[in-house]
């Protein structure tokens, strides 16, 4: 019901004393499933019924990560408005919602997360990659420009290979991004 957006079914389930924080067989909570599928009304209902905006679990199963991964801007906005931790996915591997949005080219989400105070220089724990590394690697020129304008460090180096966003962009032939990073 959370996946398909059947608000009435979710409401019925909740009225029958089902804990909105209980994970499904897949390990995800109803709110994470609804968030991933962009079911704004269901997410709002679950929050109103006591589901936590950060979810019962952190990391990649949290609602904010699930919504960001799929580019669900209205759900991300709602979760942030209701108190979701903007760096919520960073617990296990350091992959934050901003890094995720930059990696998948969700320009509007990158803009929203920056406006809400996301750390533009947060790094993945193992690799040391930043949102700027990912955007440069994938060729998302507008996102690179936005991150740089917000103070992202163009000289940030990865943990394992000491590569900068410039190295990633030049290797992939993203000339426009190379120029942005040089200026």
TrEMBL record:
The keyword Repeat applies. Transmembrane segments: none annotated. One of its GO terms (biological process) is innate immune response. It holds the Pfam family Ank. GO terms for cellular component: cytoplasm. The keyword DNA damage does not apply. SUPFAM superfamilies: Ankyrin repeat. ANK repeats lie at residues 26-58, 59-91, 93-125, 127-159, 161-183. Keywords: ANK repeat, Repeat. PANTHER family: ANKYRIN REPEAT AND KH DOMAIN-CONTAINING 1, MASK PROTEIN. This is Ankyrin repeat and SOCS box protein 3. The lineage of its organism: Eukaryota, Metazoa, Ecdysozoa, Arthropoda, Hexapoda.
